[in-house]
């Protein structure tokens, strides 16, 4: 029996939608946003849903989607103009803004390997945050819950960097070896070249650990990759 392909959780509306049509779960999201965050998991779920939608908007904007780009442009300007008002009214906004405003902007030269490592680390940190509120680890690809429970908080100590490198990042990259090999074939990741000129992922381990150590010294966002 052929399995039907999974439908994306969120899709951009097509031209057949009529004015007034809304996603089926928008009401539950709105209710969750209005729930008491200290006593209701629905608040966390709603924020997580909104986070996924914003991520989808950002990805679409990066691919040239004009309306998504306009939305982000307006949102950026809106927050810039009202940052003082928001900081005075909301301690969470104030703390997050002060923590992350000095984070170095990403550049076009940002390492492909670093992007992969940052994504692995960020996904796990979000899972740990979910566990803090719910007591359950969400399904996270091939990363076992036992591994997530063994990881110490990510920090600059040798033990923390070693644990995150050896238990999580390096094994996860080995499972994505085809992506690294493709980068190698494009002339990147030349540190993976062995004495015969062939790709050898083990040669990247010192660079991987160094990258984890650098990421560990930076502030980490709960919802976005700001490092």
Please describe what this structure looks like:
By secondary structure, this protein is mainly α. The chain has ten helices and no strands. It folds into two domains: 59 residues, no CATH class; 123 residues, no CATH class. Helices cover 58% and strands 0% of the residues. The N and C termini lie far apart (45 Å).
Largest sheet: none
Helix count equals 10
The whole-number mean of residue pLDDT values reads 80
N-to-C order of helices and strands: HHHHHHHHHH
Keywords:
single chain, 10 helices, mainly alpha, 58% helix, 2 domains, 227 residues
In short:
The chain is mainly alpha-helical and 227 residues long. The protein has helices spanning 26-34, 41-62, 66-81, 83-89, 91-100, 112-134, 145-150, 158-174, 177-185, 205-216.
Give a topology summary.
Layout: H1 26-34, H2 41-62, H3 66-81, H4 83-89, H5 91-100, H6 112-134, H7 145-150, H8 158-174, H9 177-185, H10 205-216
